[in-house]
Write a structure and sequence with these properties.
Length: about 100
């Protein structure tokens, strides 16, 4: 995750390198594609985003970095309330992106 944050912050790295790194983590790949297919990003087009490269282009590097940081935060959290925190964080991230 930290490498994804570094790549998404760098202007010298390519989208292909970022895509390859994201594809290593299945959970992150699914979340990014699901986010790219949300009404907020896809809009009214009927084309479903199926590739991680297209999702990165659609979402932008800042959104990818925010997703990776959120996963780092939640994955490192101990305790039984992780699911609640994960859901609240997802809602907050979505609200922030919409705003």
């Amino acid at each position: 995750m930290s490498r994804i944050v570094q790549l998404s912050s760098s202007e010298d790295e390519s989208t292909e390198q970022l895509a390859n790194l994201i594809l290593v983590d299945v959970a992150l790949t699914q979340k990014i594609i699901r986010l790219a297919n949300s009404v907020t990003f896809r809009g009214s087009t009927n084309q479903i985003v199926t590739s991680i490269t297209r999702a990165i282009q659609l979402l932008g590097l800042d959104t990818i970095k925010a997703c990776a940081l959120a996963m780092i935060l939640v994955d490192g959290m101990p305790g039984k309330h992780v699911q609640c925190v994960r859901q609240e964080l997802m809602l907050a991230l979505t609200a922030g992106l919409i705003g």
